[in-house]
Write a structure and sequence with these properties.
The chain has eleven helices and eleven strands. The chain is of the alpha/beta class. The strands form two sheets. The chain has a nine-stranded mixed beta sheet. Strand 4, helix 5 (142-151) and strand 5 (155-159) form a beta-alpha-beta unit. Helix 4 (116-125) runs parallel beside helix 5 and helix 5 packs parallel to helix 7. 40% of the residues are buried.
Length: 347
């Protein structure tokens, strides 16, 4: 479905540009070196067990964002079973020295899960270094904010796609700008008081309706956050070709690179299915179910190896979902936020 027109983004004067296009795909040792640079770990370490996790504890959302590739109206609401979650926690806990971050969200608004504070606490008790969520902040009220902070939340991504009410509500359909903006400010203040070490990323998804606001967005938020926080403008991606979004000039280049997702992040859906990546919203490339098999067994299994091999031999285009997907483009962030040479955190 076409949600926005696709005129190219103007290149802001003085800003970092996307890398020069590649006509020949990276393969073999060059492909592996690229992955090691992006993820900042050696290949043997990446293949052993996931460094990052996206875990869907609930599969519904209260927004209908115009750039989203998920049809939530067709999904039956589900919440992850406690026993399944406990099984996941136990295995991740055994690899706590290896795992960098666990993100308790996927195709959802995680605050809709009433058990979220307890799940955060379980992950922290298992020794997870960083427990993270991403939220639209529409229901990030003070009681919810206090609950997740006291549970030990280390990091939160909050998306505010415009500082203009009419633009924000045209993008984040069903949400109210005032609620999101005020909840974000409230969370920052409460964080400062209760758990100042928690990192907040305030971000905007750059797209057709808001692309002219990037500099104003950064300027607005930079004085409201702490030095360890982040203010980011992120390019809209095409959800593995599920939606038409604003183009940034690097779309024809993505197939030249292996996708970091297959080496970086395990994606677990509410029913325990471990899918190929976070764009595989319906588990079409099902690698296994963590309620039956171990995460380690799936991650080191034959199907994952087969998918990776296509990406390191210049054949990612043979996987329809990977062909032209712009999620993990080399320069994911726009303007001053773009730093392809730095370590990429795959979320």
């Amino acid at each position: 479905m076409t949600l926005q027109n696709t005129r190219a983004a103007p290149a802001p004067e003085g800003r970092a540009q996307d890398p020069a296009p590649r006509t020949e795909p990276l393969t073999g040792a060059a492909a592996e070196a690229y992955l090691e640079r992006r993820l900042a770990f050696p290949m043997a370490t990446l293949k052993r067990f996931p460094k990052y996790f996206l875990i869907e504890t609930i599969n519904t959302c209260n927004a209908r964002c115009i750039m989203c590739g998920i049809d939530f109206d067709k999904k039956a609401k589900a919440v992850m079973d406690d026993a399944l979650f406990a099984r996941i926690v136990e295995e991740i806990g055994r690899f706590r020295g290896h795992v960098e971050k666990v993100m308790l969200y996927l195709d959802c608004e995680p605050l809709l899960d009433k058990k979220l504070p307890g799940r955060i606490a379980q992950m922290k008790a298992a020794g997870v270094k960083i427990v993270n969520i991403a939220s639209n902040a529409s229901i990030l009220t003070e009681p919810r904010a206090e609950a997740i902070l006291r549970a030990g939340l280390d990091e939160i991504y909050i998306t505010v796609d415009s500082l203009k009410k009419e633009v924000f509500e045209a993008i984040r359909v069903r949400l109210k700008f005032e609620d999101v903006y005020n909840n974000t400010l409230g969370f920052l203040k409460l964080r400062d008081r209760l758990r100042p070490e928690t990192r907040v990323r305030v971000q905007m998804i750059m797209q057709e309706l808001n692309h002219a606001e990037a500099d104003a967005f950064r300027a607005h938020w930079k004085d409201k956050v702490r030095p360890h926080d982040q203010v980011v403008v992120q390019k809209a991606h095409n959800w593995a070709n599920a939606v038409d979004v604003m183009r940034f000039g690097d779309e024809s280049d993505v197939n030249a690179y292996p996708c970091i997702a297959l080496w970086g992040t395990a994606v677990i859906h509410v029913d325990g299915k471990l899918a190929m990546c976070c764009m595989d919203t319906e588990s079409r490339h099902l690698l296994g179910n963590v309620g039956v098999r171990s995460i380690e067994n799936i991650w080191t299994g034959e199907e994952m190896a087969r998918l990776r091999e296509k990406h390191t031999t210049g054949r990612r285009h043979e996987i329809a979902m990977c062909d032209g997907c712009t999620l993990w483009r080399e320069a994911k962030h726009a303007g001053d936020d773009a730093a392809p040479s730095q370590k990429t955190i795959p979320v």
